[in-house]
Amino acid sequence: MSVLTDLRIAAVGDIHLGEDDRGQFRKKIGGIEERADVLMLAGDLTRHGTLEEGRVVADELRGLPIPVVAVLGNHDYHSDLQYEIAGELRDAGVVVLDDDGAVIQCGDRKLGVVGGKGFGGGFAGKCASEFGEREIKNFVAHTRYIAESWKVALKEIVAEKRVVLSHYSPIKETLEGEPPEIYPFLGSYLLAEAVDTAGADLILHGHAHKGSEKGMTPGGIRVRNVALPVLGRAYAVYCLDCESGF
Amino acid sequence: MEAPQYVAARVQQALAEDGRTHELGIRVDIRGDQLFLRGQVSGAGQRERLAQVAHEAAPELHLHNEIRVVEASEPGEDERLD
Fold it and tell me: How confident is the model at residue A193 (pLDDT cuts 50, 70, 90)?
C-alpha cells in the first residue's frame, strides 16, 4: 500500500559568505534535519568568488545531516575560480550541479535535481536574439546551451519528483521589485521554456535580491525566488507530496 | 560640472566592481550635493564598506547611508505545494 508523505525541500540562495562569516551560516541552519529532507543552495554562495570564501562555504556545509545540493552564481564566478570552488564544495560532500542532474536519496524516496548557474537574455518579446555582433550572439548562445542541457538532463533523470535549481530566474514574475531595465541580466525565458518542455515539479532560483518569492512558468510549474533578502529568513521549506515506497 | 546622473552611475559601478564590495543591487541617488545609498545587505560590515567605496568615488558629496542590514530570521512556516 502506498502512503502519501511530504518531501521537504529547504532552500536559500545568495548567502554571500565572506571570510569573516565563518560559523555564522552553520548557526542559522542548526537543526535543519528536523525541518527538511534536503537543502538546496541557489548560487552566490560567496561574495567575491575567492577560494578562501569557497572554503568557508564548504566548511559551513560539511557533515550536515541531510543531503546538500548547490549551484554556483555569478559572484562565485567573479575570480575565475568556479571549478576550484565547486571542487571544495564536492570535497565537503555537497552535490554541485553544473548544467546536469543528480538523484538524491531522501529516505526511501528519490528526488531528481537538475540545474546550474543559468544565465540572462531577457523574457519573451523583450529579449536578445542570436543576431548581429559576435558578443550578443555569444551571450544568447550561452543561455540557449544551458537551457538545452537542462532539458536533456530532465528527460533522462528517473525519480519520483524533479526539481530545477538555478541561480538566474526563468520567469519575470519573481523579479517584480527589480528595475525592469535590468531583467535581461537577471534571467531568461529560455530556461522556463526548456523546463516546461521536459517537465518538473518546482523551480528554485536566487539572484534577484529585490524580487518576489512566488511565480510560475507559462506551463504552470511553480517557481520560487529563494534569494536570502527576498525570503528574509534563514531558508524556506517547500513540501512536495510523494508516494513512499517508490 | 559633471551631471549628477554620471556621478551616480560612477558610484554604482564602483560599488559593483570594487573588490571590497562587489554589490550589484544598491540604488544610488544624487540630489544637489547629497548622495543617498539605498538597498539591503546581509551584514553591518558590508554596509560600512559600501559607504566607504561610495565616498571615495564621490568625495565631494555628503553621503547618507540608508542601506538596511537584513538579519535572516528563523525559517518560518513550510509551504505545501499540492
Answer: very high
Q: B78 to chain A: nearest residue by CA?
A: A237
User: Nearest residue of B to residue A16 by CA position?
Assistant: B42
Interface test with A, best of B5, B15, B24, B74 (most A CBs within 10 A): B24
The answer to whether residues A235 and A224 touch, using CB atoms and an 8 Å cutoff, is: no
**How does residue A244 score in pLDDT terms, banded at 50, 70 and 90?**
low
Q: Contacts of residue B17 in chain A, CB cutoff 8 Å?
A: none
* pLDDT at res. B1: 72
**All three cell numbers of B70:** 537584513
Say how far apart CA A195 and CA A229 lie, in whole Å: 26
pTM exceeds 0.80: yes
Q: How far does the CA of residue A147 sit from the closest CA of chain B (Å)?
A: 24
Q: Please enumerate in sequence order all residues whose Cβ is within 8 A of that of B70, keeping only pairs 6 or more positions apart, or say none.
A: A228, A229, A232, B40, B41, B42
ipTM over 0.90: no
Q: Give the count of Cβ contacts less than 8 A between chain A and B.
A: 67
For residue B18, the chain A residue with the least C-alpha distance is A48
Mean pLDDT of A165-190: 96
Q: What is the pLDDT of residue A245?
A: 47
